[in-house]
Design goal:
About 45% of the residues are buried. The protein starts with 6 loop residues before the first strand and ends in an 8-residue tail after the last helix. It is globular, with a radius of gyration of 25 Å. Helix 1 packs parallel to helix 4 and helix 1 runs parallel beside helix 7. With about 575 residues, it is of the alpha+beta class. It is built from 16 helices and 28 strands. Strands 1, 2, 8, 9, 10, 11, 19 and 20 form an 8-stranded mixed beta sheet that branches. Helices cover about 30% and strands about 25% of the residues.
Length: about 575
């Protein structure tokens, strides 16, 4: 590779996705330069919903305490009709991934914490007033031309930055995406919405109300630090300029607050929803993430979270390539894994928007149907527990089909023998899904979140046994080369014995006590004994114990890793 590169990764855009990617890469020890065209972070509120997957990434970044103070957990959402009757309540109580399924947050404050988090890394450099103007790609690097300065300043200065890779995270008008020459297909409905953010919340109630009122759809959101957000749909005959008319604002808010003339308004903006996705997330050494790759309506709060998923997926893959643990082709899996889920979230949010904007006749039918469906417990729980949200599940990319790892016999037959149908198991392979994160016990402490025990890189975990016992010397060398953590899950009452038993293991083994039985329940319902967990906590492979060596080889092949001869 060219030895004169200035940075490993140039991140274009200091929004939440770019800052998250920079934090993750910084934690992995990579050199990162963040170039932001603005003079400072955007200071007006945008995203308001943070899900459990994103919180897990915040945990990986080591910023839970800093960001947590700007969030409110268990953000309940209620869809109500024009009469205020609740049609659907969305209140998921599970914390399978270690965090509440939904939290409210104040984006400008969270973005500031993400920026401040970069101060921990000497290898990360942030440059404001640096606008990307051109990219030139070679075989082993990219040269970025950056215009230095802001509006009203001398913009004659130009800086050239040479990077191994460039990731455009600069939003929907992305220069990087345009340079890649890929399409941005989808819809941009003409409907406009007025967003009003108010300090010293005049209602004081938490949670979210989606008002599917045919007279004028609205949203009311209680946020941390006594901030209230309202969103109102504007009709075609109402120009944007009306938002500056105090009488119009009073008219909008009259039915929502006791005295609309006494509000401490932080800001107000008009925006249009978009549902678009780029034709590709990668072109050579240039990639895109977040709004640069996909735009979606705000209804279910998934725009911000989808961008964080992008950063989480991409950070460990870039690191693997930069460390020489995988070939450049590994980065193709970023597009393969993220595109379909991003499209699914766009489709879901577009559907939610159509429900919000129903006319009177359709709204009446909707209300009648909702009342009837709420009488059916399974249907009601489908919405309450947020099971309508598409969960990422990768069937291509850095994943190995568990059933293909059992040679000479029918894997399905073994599964049936291990788990009788009367037990109602989860009979789909766990491969490609995100692993649970319960609280566990180790010799270092009690009630620890599992990810904090596993570390931030690869893990190979076995139930009731040490993975080191399942691998030969060649396999252990490959584990050492990969930098994976070996983990033994055991019932808590066996933990102390296992810690002593595996003291002399050829590689260190972390013994994890299953404090509340969550880990055993997970294995109870799946015919596997060993897991290969990626740095983003997705299951890369799962197999029976005896198949661990062969599955390790398949995982390394899936990530384009060429094992050394040993």
């Amino acid at each position: 590779m060219n030895s004169t590169v200035d940075t490993d990764v140039l991140v274009v855009g200091a929004g939440p996705v770019g800052l998250t990617l920079a934090n993750l890469l910084g934690a992995y020890g990579q050199r990162v330069t963040v170039a932001e065209a603005r003079a400072e972070l955007i200071d007006y509120p945008r995203g308001v919903g943070l899900d459990d997957e994103s919180y897990r990434t915040i945990q990986t970044m080591g910023l839970v305490d800093e960001i947590g103070r700007h969030t409110v957990p268990h953000h309940i959402m209620r869809l109500v009709n024009g009469k205020g009757q609740v049609l659907v309540t969305n209140d998921p109580a599970t914390e399978d991934f270690g965090w509440p399924r939904k939290s409210g947050f104040v984006q400008p404050l969270v973005d500031r914490e993400l920026l401040a988090g970069l101060d921990r890394f000497d290898s990360v450099d942030v440059r404001f007033r640096h606008r990307l103007e051109e990219l030139t790609e070679t075989d082993d690097h990219v040269v970025a031309t950056l215009r230095v300065g802001g509006p009203g300043e001398d913009e004659s200065a130009v800086r050239h930055v040479t990077a191994r890779y460039v990731v455009g995270c600069e939003g929907g008008r992305s220069f990087t995406r345009n340079w890649m020459g890929v399409g941005f297909e989808g819809k941009s409905p003409s409907t406009r919405w007025l967003v009003i953010d108010v300090d010293n919340d005049p209602l004081g109630t938490p949670n979210v109300y989606l008002g599917a009122d045919p007279k004028r759809p609205y949203v009311s959101i209680g946020l941390p630090h006594a901030i209230r957000r309202w969103e109102f749909m504007l009709f075609d005959h109402e120009p944007d300029e009306l938002v500056n008319d105090p009488a119009f604002m009073v008219q909008l808010l009259t039915d929502h607050v006791p005295d609309p003339t006494r509000l401490d308004i932080i800001g107000q903006r008009v925006f249009t929803h978009h549902g678009r996705i780029a034709g590709s997330f990668r072109k050579g050494r240039v990639l895109i993430a977040g709004d640069a790759a996909h735009l979606m309506p705000v209804w279910l709060g998934q725009g911000w979270n989808s961008g964080i998923r992008d950063a989480t997926n991409l950070a460990w893959k870039l690191t693997s390539v930069l460390r020489g643990q995988a070939s450049d082709t590994l980065l193709d899996s970023y597009d393969v894994e993220r595109r379909n889920h991003a499209q699914a979230m766009i489709d879901l949010n577009m559907t939610a928007g159509s429900i919000m904007k129903s006319d009177r006749k359709i709204a009446a039918l909707r209300d009648t149907a909702a009342a009837a469906l709420n009488l059916v417990p399974t249907v009601k729980s489908y919405f309450t527990d947020m099971r309508f949200k598409p969960m990422p599940r990768y069937d291509r990319g850095v994943v190995v089909d568990a059933t293909s790892r059992i040679p000479g016999v029918a894997a399905e037959r073994i599964a049936r023998r291990l788990i009788p149908r009367i037990d109602a198991p989860d009979d789909r392979s766990p491969v490609g899904t995100q692993f649970i994160q319960p609280r566990v016990n180790t010799q270092d402490g009690y009630g620890l979140l599992l990810d904090d025990v596993l570390g931030s890189w690869w893990s190979i975990a076995a139930w009731g046994n040490s993975p080191a016992r399942l691998l030969d010397a060649a396999g252990l060398d490959r584990v050492r080369e990969l930098g994976a953590t070996l983990v033994c899950f055991v019932p808590e009452r066996q933990r102390v014995w296992a810690e002593k038993e595996y003291t002399d293991s050829p590689l260190p083994v972390v013994v994890v006590g299953d404090a509340d039985g969550s880990l055993k329940r997970w294995f109870d319902n799946r015919p596997v004994g060993t897991l290969f967990l990626r740095p983003d906590r997705f299951v890369a492979a799962a197999c029976l114990a005896q198949e661990t060596p062969a599955t390790l080889t398949s995982v390394l092949k899936a990530m384009s890793h060429a094992p050394k001869e040993v």
